[in-house]
Amino acid sequence: MKRKHPSTPSESEETAGEEEQEQKLLLQQATTVKEKKRKEGSGILTGKLFSDLPISELTAKTIKEMNYTHLTHIQARSIPPLMEGRDVMGAAKTGSGKTLAFLVPAVELLYSLRFSPRNGTGVVLTHDVAKKLMKYHSQTLGYVIGGNSRRGEADQFAKGVNLLVATPGRLLDHLQNTKGFIYKSLRCLVIDEADRILEQNFEEDMKQIFKHLPWNRQTVLFSATQTVEVVNFSKLSFEKNEERKGAPVYILANDAKLNATVEGLQQGYCVIPSSDKFSVLYAFLEKKQPRKIMVFFSSCSSVKSSASDIHGKQKQQKRTTTFFNFREAKTGILLCTNVAARGLDIPDVDYIVQYDPPDEPKEYIHRVGRTASGEKGKGNALLFLLPHELKFRIYLKEANISVTQYVLKKERVPNRQPYFENIVCENYFLKHSAQEAFRSYILAYNSHSMKDIFNVHRLDLKDVAASFCLRNPPKLNMNLTSSASKHRKNMRKLDGGRRRR
């Protein structure tokens, strides 16, 4: 007898069909997620395009020439409310693209209002980044920075400055004393590096600045770190505008990663005794040329005799010239202190070398932030640590900073120490400079906030002297305990502090 086939599928056939449909659905979802990730890129990028922004052709042309295509998280979240005229407070790590996040809306604001020199200043920025983006715009750009010629700055105002880049101290000076400074039509104030401004005790200056500027302006505040002080400062910045515009937009860009530094940054450290530090640095710089490299030291005296350097004791004109030359260069070496760690727009830096460790992880973040920035950001950072300084890694880890140990093979480092010592010790000026650098280094070391790691009494002074190419340590006629706080205070002033006139 023939078996009659049922007109409906069996239970097993139904189950197989459901599994097949489920597998297709999962495959489709996986493909969608993969395609979304491909479009968004990695790390700081989103899937949103600059070409989709409602911006002028002039700005769009410049952005295209700068090879930017996709917006970063902080840009995608900040630009729309800023272009609507909203007050914004944003926090994003160094290298996440926050500069364009506030600069694009600022330039577009001036363009849309057709600002001309006779209108005076429409936007004030506390960051030197505007020149490139304004390449095709007719609006004027000016700078007022402590240490520059005040008369030359006053001449700029007389001609008319639409977008002004300023440091707080010098900005307040001109607001109070320069008659040709026309700012009654100011539409936007952008405060970048707000945490840095507060660290340098500029809060009182900023309060006075707020009193002078039109209250119905747009205010934009960006910071690399969120602290109680920054939050309180933001309330002071925004409080008068809430009735007119509503509460400010608060933006925290985690960039899909918990790391404190950007994804394209390769970070490592080497354990090097003091006596070998200079030879290792020399060999590293020699091997890595031609590259663009920044080397950070703890004191001005360690770098002031070099060919290309930036530190707080320089006259502003020389510091500015050095900065612009290095910024435009394709390769080269810049020796610097923390004055170059923040607020400087230096493209295409390949390596950050920290010859002397920073005072704390926050300083580390800002130093390495000079490389690997932007949507295609790639860069390298190398930290020199003495054997007794290894505990510093624990503090870096607590700050979500991951560094890899690079094992130093001594046979790969030529022993040039006797040669360097001969050069230095046989030249009076070089020897004097090295001795001053040695003394300054000891003071800086003694001023470290992490005394459990950076204990000056654990240093071998003869080995430290060797790191400055000296055969023997010079005499130290100083009270380290009382001098440390004074040295730290002076360094803060020099590295961007109150040198406004």
TrEMBL record:
It is an enzyme of class 3 (hydrolase). Residues 492-501 have a biased composition (Basic and acidic residues). The keyword Nucleotide-binding applies. PROSITE patterns: DEAD_ATP_HELICASE, HELICASE_ATP_BIND_1, HELICASE_CTER, Q_MOTIF. Residues 205-414 form the Helicase C-terminal domain. Residues 11-21 have a biased composition (Acidic residues). Residues 1-23, 479-501 are annotated as: Disordered. Transmembrane segments: none annotated. Its EC number is 3.6.4.13. InterPro entries: DEAD/DEAH_box_helicase_dom, Helicase_ATP-bd, Helicase_C-like, P-loop_NTPase, RNA-helicase_DEAD-box_CS, RNA_helicase_DEAD_Q_motif, SPB4-like_CTE. It catalyses: ATP + H2O = ADP + phosphate + H(+). GO terms for cellular component: nucleolus. A motif (Q motif) lies at residues 48-76. GO terms for biological process: maturation of LSU-rRNA from tricistronic rRNA transcript (SSU-rRNA, 5.8S rRNA, LSU-rRNA). CDD domains: SF2_C_DEAD. Keywords: ATP-binding, Helicase, Hydrolase, Nucleotide-binding, RNA-binding. Residues 79-244 form the Helicase ATP-binding domain. GO terms for molecular function: ATP binding; hydrolase activity; RNA binding; RNA helicase activity. Residues 48-76 form the DEAD-box RNA helicase Q domain. The keyword ATP-binding applies. Belongs to the DEAD box helicase family. DDX18/HAS1 subfamily. RNA helicase. The Q motif is unique to and characteristic of the DEAD box family of RNA helicases and controls ATP binding and hydrolysis. This is ATP-dependent RNA helicase.
